[in-house]
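Fold these two proteins, one after the other.
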Amino acid sequence: MKKFILYLFCLLSVCFFADTASAKTYVISADSKPCNGMGGSEKYNSHTKGYYLISSYLNKIAAEKGGTLVLKKGTYKISNTLYVAGNTHIILQDGVVLKKETTTGRSDMPAASSMFQFINGDKAKTEGAYGKHNGEKNISITGKGNAEINLGYADMEGKDVIGIIMGHNRNVKLKNITFKNMRYGHMIEMDACRDVTITDCTFTGFKPSGKYNKEAINLDTPDKNRNGFKSVWSKKDGTPNENVTIKSCVFENLEAGIGTHRYTGNRYHKNVVIKDCTFEKVQTAIRVLNWKNAVITKNSFTDCIPNDRYLYSFFIAGAKGIDFSENVFDHCGNSGKYLLEFWCNRGYAANQSIYAATTSKITEEEAELFLTNEAWDCGDIHVLDCPYEVDFTEMEEE
């Protein structure tokens, strides 16, 4: 029996390493041509060139069950959605700019409002193709040096223009990318994903959406009642995100940084970690809504002045277990606007009548962690119906 188990282990190991070894790497530049004959002369123009080029190689990698695509320095205009299948790794070399293009130059081929969607293109139009956390897995985009995903303040008749849509994915890694210039939508839309890490990224630049709640990173649930996640391939089963780490990132000059502004009843995003990040001139830095066992620690917040619709720099509601500690706030909130709005035993249900109001539950120990935060020259803290004394240590500048 031991020999059989050892033999089986070796056989599986050989298969695993063989698959890994067989994955190919493709290197392209902005002047490269699409592979596999994709992008006929009637469609291939200055607006669509970047899309057809990158898409052709992503399709090739999907057909080969995985691989790596390296983009060399240059600007690539992306008019339509790039579908990324499982086991795909994209490397953006120093000087790469992926720029959102809002037209294809063709009346019979409209541009799409998203740049990337993490799903095999063969299933992108299949209704309810994936649910729970059973979608594409093992996907990464890594920047080397200065690499940008630039949404160009795109205005596509009010549509949500989004840099990356991930849904029902597992094991996703984004590293060292600068996301720029959002207006409508989000830089990253994350629904029903598990084991996601976003590290060393910068999120910067916005024009007002008119809604005041467009987060750079949005954590949401795919819910047909809410219509917050519109991708047809999602089952809309209300699956929350789990095990999300956002670390050592910079958020600056934004309408909102990270957060949730819609929820599914009795569903909680679990184990969200936000650590060692910097927030500067972000109107609403973080919005916690139906998060469980979250860790928000050792971040700095500077000049985060709320807008006129959401009167807080930081919001917590529907929290079950939260380590909110060792953060530093400098000039966040002001007269008439709050540094923090904390709803503990009262519901947050504005325009949320489909589901019952959500409440926060924290322990006395968790309440004490709030005392480790520091604030200088900040607005008030608005605490509603909390059984513990939750406050910040007020420090005077020396």
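Now the second one:
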Amino acid sequence: MFKKIRKIKQLGIVARDRIGDYVQLMSILIKIQWNYVSAQIISYVAIFVLALLSLVFIGVAVIVSFWETPYRVASAWGIVAFYALTALGIFLVSLNRVRPEFPLETIRTELEKDAKLVKEVV
């Protein structure tokens, strides 16, 4: 009986020490994740703005090129169809994207290891 109480007391000390480690690990993981997410957001916004501008100006350039011809209306509708098909293609591709690993996977793994250790000791 006293042996089990000593083991549980030792586990309590280990758990108390590990809580500090978990807090440090959590703050490091949050900083890493924030740096990654903010860089991704900035790059996606820049890509979106530049791609949108280039598509608009390409469409205007094609329509202006056909302005004095009988194909003016057909070229305008062709540009609209191209934009619609491109948007549909991007939507279909985005449905198949793989989600990244859960950001706090490391914490979960460490907690599972500690739980396994506690089960073995008790």
